């Protein structure tokens, strides 16, 4: 039997939990969808509103560093994903950043017409690609294959390989370095969505040779609902990139108000409009929880938590039709575990009502995210116990749990 208390006593990250505001009695296993509020972000946002916006008014652009915040926050995120200073900017949302990066990448491979992705990619990435292709009217096409078929589908027709490293539904993890290397062998560019990677485990964009990357600020980075996203451009590519959207914040001299567009040098050219300052302040403060923490330690605890959860769920919930849909091997799994169940939605609502918060993805997947900075082994073992109670007693079989909400 696993000594859960001993695991928590030996946890080098245990003290980090105190930096988060998690409601009493809640076991929060949905940080892969929305990270919780940190105490630092709460204080920083309040200060940004009262002391900066309230007192400085428009002077805040200079006096409080609002104007330069996208680069500063971008560099802090870059340190978590293996990107050098000056290669990441915080901007817009993930969907807009997909559009910007993909349009810039396609322009760099004008003789090729295929965007290669996989059937496990997050739908918005595919929607953006479809819309961009239709708007370009240049004969491009989006080709999607099964995740395990990506390497074999890379050929000289592919302009851009566009993948999400961790499957949002199952947690399956792609081999970023291997697939990027294969894409480069056939002359394609590699673009990665890190929405379920950044802040969850080690990412090495430089070592993998990725050309472009995007990600959001509100999952494992805990930046808050609708927090600014981020994008990365490999330093050697930056002088050539020009996204299809050109806005004044990407101009070489935005306050010269020139009628013609001249892109800023470096990653700044990937910015478009005025940055969301209050949200940026919250994201910046949320990143403080990573100070002094090695991503390897986060990854080690993530594996320990998820392995314990799988073992406890399979031990306590046998015979109830739960099916593990995440990879069993943690080396090819992100920081989440997903189980399928025919009453997955209702069972998740029953769990949430009992203080264990995960989420659901159609058609039948119950998702549980493991954010090591605020979760303990005792938490995940207790969550497995509550799941067993819900299934043993058919506690999910109530009208209020069977009725679907807008957000699942």
Structural features, described:
With 408 residues, the chain is an alpha/beta fold. It folds into 2 domains: 4-37 and 294-402, Aspartate Aminotransferase, domain 1 (Alpha-Beta Complex), CATH 3.90.1150.10; 68-274, Aspartate Aminotransferase, domain 2. The chain has helices at residues 4-9, 39-56, 60-63, 69-80, 94-108, 123-136, 150-153, 176-185, 205-208, 277-286, 295-316, 344-353, 377-392, 399-402; strands at residues 27-28, 88-90, 114-118, 141-145, 158-164, 189-193, 212-215, 230-233, 323-324, 336-340, 356-357, 359-361, 365-369. It has a 7-stranded mixed sheet with strand order 2-8-7-6-5-3-4, sandwiched between helices. α2 (39-56) packs antiparallel against α10, α5 packs across α6 (123-136) and α11 packs parallel to α13. The model has no long low-confidence stretch (mean pLDDT 97).
